[in-house]
């Protein structure tokens, strides 16, 4: 029977055909917990009478939201989680490796056909590896820690076919922002987005992660990129795995099929205070910015930093009065950028380069905005108050647009730099 | 039992900002609920008050601190035209009842409402508004009083691969 990728993944797990709308108690292949939502999951696990986790090797623990600890309660959370990891025999990446979603991907903990849950809404990032990955709350995670399974309603899918070729200094982030604008903040609620088409096929893994990452910004439960040679190469470089075919069938019952063409797509900007409030960059060009953040699970990879550095070019300095914060998404990405000389360029130009972590994106650690301030951020949310004061404004863009804007102190089309 | 009415796309950063996520106690979280976006909520919300939203209530972060902050403020019921998926599930799991009502718009801020679950309606301004029932598999969790109570007496679960 014809099926979507999401239906195929759940069917493989259950050993029988399941369809969108079915409710199944499905085993999970991996479960990710971090420093913010993990402590609550552990407490719930205990309240549920949990003594030993279902399988320590399937649990991924790390700290990224408040690292190094920015307060005594944050430090206490880290200690609490370390003790739990030790007691249960869970490998803890601690605060050494970087932002959870980047780390899960680069350590090869996500693969095509897997079901992965994480106590973070951007867990959908692992759809870039062909996994069904979704964010859950801490109580659901307590249940997963105990039983290794969770109730899922198999979602319907929207097929997103993306054709064409990106223009200069336009890429994955511009595509996914334009999709958010088109589909809307709740246009895919309870559904899976299935990405395919030439522009996706030609996109590197970094770009695919950017796209899958923001599926949640349309309300989606998962965002899955149809696995191809690039997917298998990425995953096989990180773990032993035999490639198999995992594609949505042409005659599968997609809820909707949407076609896009990125040829001629302009750089996109999400303007305050919703992610689906998206415009071409020229509509907001000239808006003064106080802070530019280049990083996050959305856009903190080497490729993103390289895009920003390419726009920076040989310019001496970022604009005076603009705080430029650059945060590589992981230790691995940091080293790549360092060895390629990118970090040196950013520091020379006046950026603050911070150790891998979520940084200003979560609005709880550092890089907070004062009332009236404006931030341009390569992260995924521009909600009112997201990066500090509720009277501040957050715009979202690609790393190239962020770098161009940092050079001029105002939102700037990177194609005009 | 007053209604606190909010608009569409109420996100979990608005319900409880990121800087308070090291707090886990519902009563403490409640002191910061809607801080910066509707400060009087934390001061004035009373036991039994109802939060009302438009579409996509609870979008954004998976933080369970959001339903906990509302519970800590005494809110037991959230009514909206639609909910974001993770919030909906978190609410059910923690014992906060999310009710979907297509007619949520007709309720005004400050109105008194009563919820009649058995009857499948809420009553505001003397009008009965239909609410959608919680889907079957989640109803068991609601009836148990949340996922912790539901899971406490289970030693293992049967998964779809074994049944």
**In total, how many beta strands of chain B?**
7
CATH architectural type of the largest domain in chain A:
2-Layer Sandwich
Give the N-to-C terminal Cα separation of chain A: 52 Å
Count the beta strands of chain A: 17
* The CATH class of chain B: Alpha Beta
Structural class, judged by helices and strands of chain A? alpha/beta
Number of domains of chain B: 1
CATH fold name of the largest domain in chain A: Aconitase, domain 3
Largest interface: A-B, 63 and 47 residues
Distance between the termini of chain B: 45 Å
The pLDDT mean of chain B sits at 93
Largest sheet of chain A: 5 strands, parallel
Q: What count of structural domains of chain A?
A: 2
Shape of chain A: globular
Regions of chain B with pLDDT < 50 over 5+ consecutive residues?
Answer: none
Structure, described:
The complex is a heterodimer of chains A (417) and B (163). Chain A folds into two domains: 5-241 and 253-261, Aconitase, domain 3, CATH 3.30.499.10; 268-416, Aconitase, domain 3, CATH 3.30.499. Helices cover 31% and strands 18% of the residues of chain A. Chain A has 14 helices and 17 strands. Chain A is globular and about 60 Å long. With 163 residues, chain B is an alpha/beta fold. Chain B has one domain (3-152): Aconitase, domain 4. Chain B has helices at residues 12-15, 26-30, 40-44, 65-72, 85-94, 136-144, 147-152, and strands at 3-5, 50-52, 77-80, 97-100, 113-116, 121-124, 127-130. The longest helix of chain B has 10 residues, at 85-94. The N and C termini of chain B lie far apart (45 Å). At the A-B interface, helix 1, strand 1, helix 2, helix 3 and helix 5 of A face helix 5 and helix 7 of B.
Features:
heterodimer; A: 417 residues; alpha/beta; Aconitase, domain 3; 2 domains; 5-stranded parallel β-sheet; 4-stranded parallel β-sheet; 14 helices; 17 strands; 31% helix; B: 163 residues; Aconitase, domain 4; 3-stranded antiparallel β-sheet; 7 helices; 16% strand; globular
